[in-house]
Amino acid sequence: MENFKSGFVALIGRTNVGKSTLLNMLVGEKVAATANKVQTTRTAIKGIVNTEHSQIVFIDTPGIHKPKTKLNETMLETSFGVIKDIDLILFMIEATSTEIGRGDQRILEKIKESGKKAILLINKIDLIEKEKLLKLIEMYTKEYQFEAVIPISSLKEKYRKTILEEIEKNLKEGPAYYDIEEYTDQTMRTLAEETIREKALILLQDEVPHGILVEVTKMQLRQNKQGQDIYDIEATIYCLRNSHKGIIIGKNGEMLKKIGSFARADMERNFGTKVNLKTWVKVKEDWQEDSQVVKKFKLDN
Question: Which of 66, 191, 211, 252 has its C-alpha lying 20 to 30 A from 51's C-alpha?
Answer without folding.
Answer: 191
